[in-house]
Structure to design on (347 residues):
């Protein structure tokens, strides 16, 4: 049985074994000593403590105690304090300010990532703003201005779709810039220290990118607009089909008057006359088939227009299955009546 300590590291509470606590305390003291002469010693130490807290949070499941193995693994991933300090070994530096600037530059080296935590669509503009230290809104505004200038240029000159070029540039940056998903990548994006051994895969995955784009603010706006547009189309379609169901009972009389002008009816014509010249079971089955299509269209239109969640029992799927069954029933009834009216038809 081992004794434990409760500690707070970078604002996070952990329960740690006593020997691991001593090991971690020694490591943090070594870090403070390594950066003691640096003007940004407090900021650097706070960053490293935050990094250690992030790694501990990754390793510790709820209720788990930090042990010596975790602490030693973290020390390996972060590295030696003297290496992190990146001391200048040149015995005759140009000037103290130059050494300090070089240390700050090496410490704050950034990597280009898409900032998906502050994205509007793919996080490209946000990532560029983070990398170059610019306001993300200004980068986005620059993309929009370039797009509209290209569009106006194309309209005035009528020579080539120039507005496509900014879109292609954005897509190329989206594919080439990996997304900062892990804590390590987010720290690299902001120029904070991390370990090369801790890199994780940042390959472009199409399904992941599409899912993230759909969940972005711009993606949600496009999805909502597309849903409203499709909902209006489905509503018009459903209402049109419903209107057809209303006027459908008048079709038998129209067919009756048209076919009464025929002087001679063969077996096939007589079968059609008997089937469709009066409102019978055939027309009821046709009405059910068309009515289910109308109900399906109106149901999906309401779901899309009001952005409602589909119930767990899937009414749209139930309507579709009922429609398929009604098609089979209608076909079976039609062939049955044909077999009775025209002997030897299927021989």
């Amino acid at each position: 049985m081992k004794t434990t300590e409760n500690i707070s590291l970078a604002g996070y509470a952990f329960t740690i074994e006593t020997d691991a606590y001593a090991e971690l305390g020694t490591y943090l003291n070594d870090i403070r000593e390594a950066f003691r002469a640096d003007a940004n010693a407090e900021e650097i130490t706070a960053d490293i403590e935050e990094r250690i807290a992030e790694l501990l949070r990754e390793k510790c499941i709820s209720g788990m105690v930090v042990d010596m193995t975790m602490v030693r693994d973290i020390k390996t991933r972060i590295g030696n304090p003297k290496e992190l300090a990146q001391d200048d070994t040149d015995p005759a530096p140009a000037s103290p300010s130059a050494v300090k600037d070089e240390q700050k530059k090496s410490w704050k080296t950034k990597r280009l990532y898409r900032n998906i935590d502050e994205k509007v669509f793919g996080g490209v503009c946000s990532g560029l703003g983070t990398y170059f230290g610019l306001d993300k809104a200004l980068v986005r505004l620059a993309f929009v201005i370039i797009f509209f200038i290209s569009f106006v240029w194309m309209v005035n000159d009528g020579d080539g779709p120039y507005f496509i070029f900014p879109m292609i540039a954005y897509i190329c940056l989206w594919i080439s810039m990996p997304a900062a998903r892990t804590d390590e990548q987010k720290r690299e994006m902001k120029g904070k220290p991390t370990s090369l051994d801790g890199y994780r895969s940042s390959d472009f995955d199409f399904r992941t990118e599409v899912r993230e784009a759909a969940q972005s603010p711009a993606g949600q706006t496009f999805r909502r607009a597309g849903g409203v547009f499709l909902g209006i189309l489905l509503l018009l379609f459903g209402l049109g089909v419903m209107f057809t169901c209303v006027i459908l009972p008048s079709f038998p009389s129209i067919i009756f008057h048209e076919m009464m002008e025929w002087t001679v009816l063969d077996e096939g014509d007589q079968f059609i006359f008997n089937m469709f010249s009066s409102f019978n079971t055939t027309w009821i089955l046709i009405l059910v088939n068309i009515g289910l299509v109308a109900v399906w269209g109106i149901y999906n239109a309401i779901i899309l227009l009001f952005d409602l969640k589909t119930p767990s029992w899937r009414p749209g799927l139930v309507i579709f299955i009922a429609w398929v069954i009604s098609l089979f029933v209608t076909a079976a009834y039609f062939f049955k009546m044909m077999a009775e009216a025209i002997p030897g038809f299927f021989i």
Observations:
- The first strand starts at residue 4 and ends at 9.
- Strands lie at 4-9, 12-17.
- The first helix runs from residue 18 to 34.
- Residues 219-341 form one domain.
